[in-house]
C-alpha cells in the first residue's frame, strides 16, 4: 500500500450517523467534490467490505488448517493399518503352512489308535484346536483390517479433495480482499492534504461525541476486576501496542482485529475461535453493563470487527489497514454486543490495570488518520 494509506483516518461511528441522498451512478461526484461526511461514509463502507472479506478469508484459512490436520491424521492411521494388515497376512500364511503340516483330515478316533500313546493323541488334538482358533482370529483381523484400510483410504482421498477445494477458495477470497483494499487506496490517493486533515478532524469530533453519548447512556459497567485468564489476555494485548495491522495476521509481528483477540486469549490459556463472527456466535454473550477487562467487544451488525475491553470505556484493538494496534474509545465503532471467553472465571480480588505506554491511544481508530510513528510506542 502507498504511504498515503498510512497517513489517513476516519470513524464508522460517525459514518453510521451520516444521512446520504442516493445519487445516480453516472452523477457520482469526484472525491474532491464530496463532503467530508460523504467521504467518511464511503471510506467506512469500503473498509467494512474489506474487513468482512478478511474475516471470510480467516474462516476459510481455519477450515483449511483443520483439513490439513485431518489429512495428516488419516494418512498416519492408514499407514499403521496397512502395516498391521501386512503383519496379519504374514500370520495367516504361517498358520496355513502349520495347518498343512498338521492335517486335520484324520478323525480323532483313528489318531487315537495310531498314536504312540493316548496322551500324545490328546496333546496333538489340543494343538490342532489352538491352530484352528488362531486361524479364525487371524482371518477376522485380516478381514477387519482390509475393511478399515479401505475406509481410511476413502476418507484420506476426501480430505485431500476438501483441502484442494479450500485452497482454491482461499485464493479467491485473498484476491477479493486485495481488490477491496485497492479501492480504499484509490479513494484515499485522490484526496489532497487539506481534505485528509478535514477528514481526521471530523473523525476525532465524531468519536468524542459518540463516546460521550455511549457513556451517558449507562450501558457501560462500573469498575470490575477481570478473571486470572482475563488479566493475562489484557497484559499480553498491551504488549502488542504499536504493531501494524495486517489482514489475515495473527501475530507475532502484525495482527488483524480477531487475530489479536484470539492470540491474546491463546496466551492466556483459553483458546477461542479465530474470527470475530465465530467469537460472537460461539462465546458467551454478556450485557455491556457487566463488561470486565479481557471481555471482547463486537462491532457492526455482521460482527466483522472485534476489540479487547480494557476497562474505563476503552478497548485495545487492531483497527484497520494503515493503523497500528492501539487503545480506542469503546464507541469508535458501532457496538453490536460483548462476549466473555471465560464465563466461569472468577474475578480477581485485587487488580491493578497494566500501565499503558505513552502514545498508546495515538493514531487512527479506523485506519484513516495519521498512524502512530513506529518509535512512539515502546
Write up what this structure looks like:
- The chain has 378 residues and is of the alpha+beta class.
- It has 2 domains: 132 residues, Helix Hairpins; 185 residues, Alpha-Beta Complex (endopeptidase fold (from Nostoc punctiforme)).
- A hairpin with a 2-residue loop joins strand 4 and strand 5.
- The radius of gyration is 33 Å and the shape is globular.
- The N terminus and C terminus are likely disordered.
Superfamily (CATH H level) name of the largest domain? endopeptidase domain like (from Nostoc punctiforme)
- Give the termini distance in whole angstroms: 25 Å
Rg from C-alpha positions?
33 Å
- Level-2 CATH architecture of the largest domain: Alpha-Beta Complex
Could you say which structural class the secondary elements and strand pairing correspond to?
Answer: alpha+beta
- Mean pLDDT across all residues, rounded? 75
Q: Briefly, what is this?
A:
The protein has 8 helices and 8 strands.
How is this fold's topology laid out?
Layout: E1 7-8, H1 12-15, H2 36-101, H3 108-114, H4 118-189, H5 193-216, H6 228-238, H7 257-267, H8 276-282, E2 284-286, E3 296-299, E4 305-311, E5 314-317, E6 326-329, E7 335-340, E8 369-370
Antiparallel strand pairs: 1-8, 2-7, 3-4, 3-7, 4-5, 5-6
Amino acid at each position: 500500500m502507498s504511504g498515503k494509506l498510512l497517513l489517513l483516518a476516519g470513524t464508522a461511528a460517525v459514518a453510521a450517523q451520516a444521512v446520504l441522498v442516493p445519487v445516480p451512478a453516472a452523477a457520482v461526484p469526484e472525491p474532491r467534490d464530496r463532503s467530508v461526511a460523504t467521504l467518511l461514509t464511503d471510506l467506512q463502507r469500503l473498509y467494512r467490505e474489506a474487513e468482512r472479506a478478511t474475516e471470510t478469508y480467516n474462516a476459510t484459512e481455519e477450515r483449511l488448517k483443520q483439513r490439513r490436520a485431518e489429512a495428516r491424521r488419516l494418512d498416519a492411521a492408514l499407514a499403521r493399518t496397512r502395516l498391521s494388515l501386512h503383519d496379519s497376512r504374514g500370520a495367516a500364511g504361517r498358520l496355513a503352512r502349520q495347518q498343512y503340516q498338521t492335517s486335520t483330515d484324520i478323525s480323532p478316533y483313528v489318531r487315537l489308535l495310531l498314536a504312540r500313546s493316548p496322551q500324545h493323541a490328546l496333546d496333538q488334538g489340543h494343538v490342532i484346536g489352538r491352530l484352528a482358533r488362531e486361524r479364525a482370529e487371524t482371518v477376522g483381523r485380516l478381514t477387519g483390517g482390509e475393511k478399515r484400510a479401505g475406509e481410511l483410504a476413502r476418507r484420506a482421498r476426501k480430505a485431500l479433495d476438501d483441502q484442494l477445494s479450500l485452497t482454491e477458495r482461499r485464493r479467491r477470497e485473498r484476491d477479493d480482499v486485495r481488490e477491496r483494499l485497492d479501492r480504499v487506496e484509490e479513494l484515499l490517493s485522490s484526496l489532497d492534504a487539506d481534505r485528509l486533515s478535514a477528514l481526521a478532524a471530523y473523525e476525532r469530533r465524531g468519536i468524542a461525541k459518540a463516546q460521550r453519548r455511549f457513556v451517558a447512556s449507562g450501558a457501560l459497567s462500573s469498575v470490575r476486576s477481570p478473571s486470572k485468564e482475563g488479566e493475562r489476555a489484557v497484559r499480553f494485548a498491551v504488549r502488542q501496542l504499536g504493531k501494524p495491522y495486517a489482514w489475515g495476521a495473527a501475530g507475532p509481528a502484525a495482527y488483524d482485529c480477531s487475530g489479536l483477540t484470539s492470540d491474546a486469549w491463546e496466551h492466556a490459556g483459553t483458546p477461542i475461535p479465530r474470527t470475530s463472527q465465530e467469537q460472537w456466535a460461539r462465546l458467551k454473550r454478556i450485557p455491556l453493563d457487566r463488561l470486565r477487562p479481557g471481555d471482547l467487544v463486537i462491532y457492526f451488525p455482521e460482527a466483522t470487527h472485534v476489540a479487547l475491553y480494557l476497562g474505563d470505556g476503552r478497548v485495545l484493538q487492531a483497527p484497520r489497514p494503515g493503523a497500528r494496534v492501539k487503545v480506542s474509545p469503546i464507541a469508535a465503532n458501532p457496538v453490536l454486543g460483548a462476549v466473555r471467553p471465560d464465563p466461569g472465571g472468577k474475578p480477581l480480588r485485587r487488580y491493578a490495570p497494566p500501565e499503558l505506554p505513552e502514545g498508546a491511544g495515538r493514531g487512527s481508530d479506523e485506519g484513516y488518520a495519521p498512524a502512530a510513528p513506529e518509535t512512539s510506542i515502546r
